[in-house]
Amino acid sequence: MTTKISNFLLDCLLWILFLLVLIPVVHLQNGKNPFYWFPPDNFDIISRKMDLANPDNCVTMSETDLRLPPTALSQLPRYNQILLQQWFSNRSKLLHLHNLALNRAFFYSYIQQRLDGPVVDPPFLPSFLYYYLSAAADVSSGPNVMNASAVLMDTNTTYANWYGLKVINRTLPLFGPTARRLDNWNDENNFLRVPTNKTIKASLFFMDDKRKI
User: Fold this and answer.
1) Element (H or E) spanning 169, and its range?
2) Model confidence pLDDT, tens digit, residues 13-23
3) Which superkingdom heads the taxonomic lineage of this protein's source (predicted)?
């Protein structure tokens, strides 16, 4: 009797060990996580594209792989439809970003067309420093909205490529004043070690065939 009970317990133990080995194998064959049976959504598409692209292979990837699909973000603002529809409450930051981009585009277009004169106007054109201050103002205007702003010029230009003042419009191969919000939690004057979102770094994005600053 004792021998039969021992054999029964041994068989049960072997079956349990077999199931413990079989279940993970079957699970790994069906999916990589317990939510594999969920249908993919836009978040999965965005996450997959961001995981595939890196600084080493982005040059060889196609433009389709580097662009998100138009449906990745709903309720994209358009300047001629803002007042014609109701907006979700979580789209306020997106609207601010949209309005700020239009504001800067209209301003630069106006100021450069207004001052595109032959002799008198060049001293009044926006200087390099103005571009830096403008980008920093864009970032500081939205503490919880924008983390970076830049004005990227065409090749060998400092102003618009249609500018009539050709003499002063040939400077750097690629010129792009940039402002970024920095994480200042580890600054020596930040005693609480809490990010304040008030540190902005203005830098020059200049790139040619050999160097990048």
Assistant:
1) none
2) 666 665 555 55
3) Eukaryota
pLDDT of 14 reads 62
Residue 200: in which H helix or E strand, if any?
strand 200-206
Tokens of 81: 């439809």
Strands 175-181 and 200-206: antiparallel
Euclidean distance between CA atoms 208 and 30, whole angstroms: 49
Q: Are 136 and 178 in contact (CB under 8 A)?
A: no
What is the 3 state secondary structure string of 158-200? CCCCCCCCCHHHCCCCCEEEEEEECCCCCCCCCCCCCCCCCCE
Closest CA to 158 of 175, 178, 140: 175
**DSSP run (H or E) holding 149:** strand 148-150
Asked if the model's pLDDT at residue 130 lies above 80, the reply is: yes
Tokens representing residue 111 in the block: 């100021």
Contact 21, 14 (CB under 8 A): no
> pLDDT digits over 64-118, tens only?
888 887 777 778 888 888 888 888 888 888 888 888 888 888 888 887 777 766 6
Q: How far apart are CA 135 and CA 180, in angstroms?
A: 9
What's the chain's length in residues? 213
Contact (Cβ atoms closer than 8 angstroms) between residue 125 and residue 117: no
Q: How far is Cα 207 from Cα 203, in angstroms, rounded to an integer?
A: 13
Question: Token match 């032959």: residue?
Answer: 118
